[in-house]
Amino acid sequence: MNTHGNEEDRDENGEEEVFINEEDILEEINVDEEDLPDGDGDGDEDMGSDPDEDEPDDSMHIFTGHTGELYTVACSPTDPTLVATGGGDDKGFLWKMGVGDWAQELQGHKDSVSSIAFSIDGQLLATGSLDGTVQVWDMPAGSLKCTLDGPGGGIEWVRWHPRGHAVLAGSEDGTVWLWNADKNAYLNMFSGHASSVTCGDFTPDGKTICTGSDDASLRVWNPKTGENIHVITGHPYHKEGLTCLVISSDSSLAITGSKDGSVHIVNLITGMVVNSLLSHSDSVECIGLSPSHPFAATGGLDQKLIIWDLQRSTVRLSCDHEDGVACLVWLGSSRYVVTGCLDGKVRVWDSLSGDCVRTFNGHSNAIQSLSPSANLDYLVSVSIDQTARVFEIAEFKQ
Hints:
Layout lengths: L60 E3 L6 E6 L6 E6 L4 E5 L2 E8 L6 E6 L5 E6 L4 E5 L4 E6 L6 E6 L5 E6 L3 E6 L4 E7 L5 E6 L6 E5 L4 E4 L6 E5 L9 E6 L5 E6 L3 E6 L4 E7 L5 E6 L5 E6 L3 E6 L4 E7 L4 E6 L5 E6 L4 E5 L5 E5 L6 E6 L5 E6 L4 E5 L6
Antiparallel strand pairs: 1-32, 2-3, 3-4, 4-5, 6-7, 7-8, 8-9, 10-11, 11-12, 12-13, 14-15, 15-16, 16-17, 18-19, 19-20, 20-21, 22-23, 23-24, 24-25, 26-27, 27-28, 28-29, 30-31, 31-32
InterPro entries: Quinoprotein_ADH-like_sf (IPR011047), WD40/YVTN_repeat-like_dom_sf (IPR015943), WD40_PAC1 (IPR020472), WD40_repeat_CS (IPR019775), WD40_rpt (IPR001680), WD_repeat_multifunction (IPR051179)
Main location: cytoplasm
Protein name: Angio-associated migratory cell protein
């Protein structure tokens, strides 16, 4: 899957046609794939073949407790083996990597579990559902702590305060809610968006909340007062709904992606759009910041992962995929970024060279979410194929 590959050239059977120049072709000979020698084992040579026939399953653990599509996954920040998943069967599950006979069902939601997040200290788990509620689970006790309600629509996402047990959720009804999970208490409701609140988070300093909506606006809020500090909308900002956002480590900038294919950088102090990163040709689905380089990564339905140089606001690398990119995650402070794709593959990319250094096979349908374990030894992916899979990634820590 290197960017310089000629992977688009496939015949109707999915077999790859490789040639130097068109004029160099004397004749084309069809070769049965079974007669071909094995490639270098990174999985790329099997891109066009039937995944059920040829491709190995690279996962070291498969979780099959769900009976519907999986939408969300989170690894515990404190227990390297503990994983939480949620899906269209209205259930969450807690399970452990490599421990096939242990799983705890998180019951009580009446609709799909759309978002899941551990508190920073790993003590609490929040599950957000399209039923409009957030359930908070006590990890040491393994029991339901409280159910937080109020929103009039489904929960799109949940996030924890960076230093406490306040939980934030965005809803399809255009509102954002903040609760104290320790006290099972409502703290604030943020109203102003005209459409579903598709993304949001606390700034890393915990002093501000940023939310993005399908109404094509970004809003900046004061968590204590509920005051709407800034509304960023209109030219030169996104023309269509926001899909994803990330906030810089110094809490000064938000980078947002949209259905319109644009990426914009907003100064959270002034509320001004300071840069526009325009290179995707279809919806930007995911975004992430490198902790160790001045890079942002964005993935889109245009089948591209783009690594941006934030110091120059330019494209550093564009990495081509066989299908749309649904989710991505940087592997700690390493140079590697992982993409989860609509073709069911999980790919590891070197952000310095642009090379795809590993393709993990195993899923038979689109990847929806990715989460690395706390020790960065494992990566968990969830798919609409109803499974979660664990892949070994320890070699990419550096």
